[in-house]
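User: Second chain of the day. Same drill as before.
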Amino acid sequence: MNAEFIEALEEIEREKGIAKEVIFEALESALISSYKKNFGSSQNVEVQIDRETGKVNVYAKKTVVEDVENDLLEISLEEAKKIDDKYQIGDIVMLEVTPKNFGRIAAQTAKQVVIQRIKDAERDVIYKEFVNRENEIITGIIQRINNNVVYIDLGKTEGILPPSEQIEGEEYKQGDRLKLYILEVKKTTKGPQIILSRSHPGLVKRLFELEVPEIHDGIVDIYAISREAGSRTKIAVHSKDPNVDPVGACVGFKGSRVKAIVDELNGEKIDIIIWSKNIDEFIANSLSPSKVLKVEINEKERSALIVVPDYQLSLAIGKEGQNARLAAKLTNWKIDIKSESQYNEELESE
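Assistant: Same format as last time:
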């Protein structure tokens, strides 16, 4: 290794942000392994690289003893004194043992170490960038699909959309562009693993933040979201400004804003509900699009009895109970729905 190598390290330090000293230390460690592999593994050696010239020296480390039992690891006091009169029992003597052709081995090892360090540094940069973007939205292109796992090209790296985070019934084709939610960023030996989601409620939240300036600006708040991905979502919103209608802001002119989100989610139905600190009102709103006649609250059990018109009972419950289930998830209250005639019959029997 020579001055050109030192210059190359300086360039790597500038461009990749990898400290020169980090590469030197990694290289010295790797050269110890290379020496032992090529020239005998029993010696206790140290490799030193001159930081100015790049010259590599290998030293055998031997302990000064009275009687030598292992000449690879020990040196007699008599022999040590010949090198330097100051040596005492227990001292470490460094004897240069640099092989003639070690420069070639050093050059090969240096190349491997530098390549590996650059890879590690690039992985670290990607990890740091994406770990700070957890719970955010990102656009990616489907690269390939393997065993139902969808691999997404995110530009600098690749993300994975596992089957558990896919929307049931959604078709994924190579080359399709998708908006995805960054669920988790893990550090692995092969670099960062970015787990993406299409089914997380956070995706709907982020899409509304993108489409609705009033949400982005903090005038309208998203209070809660309940979602059955691919089918239906309920989102509860609240306006801090009495002059701004939160539902109108989310729907947009002629429904343009909510339509953009529904299109991105391939037709998933979205109910936008006004949140109220009055729990009766919030629970009644949560059963939208059904009309609610009466709400009876049990604070202790966090449960509510809802009375709806007879002709709207199936609408309030929803297909396979979906509307009631999403309302319960949105409000975090147990919900029992009865028709007006059922409620009146029970009152009479009581």
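Residues 200-275 form a domain with the GMP Synthetase; Chain A, domain 3 fold (CATH 3.30.300.20).

User: Great, on to the next one.
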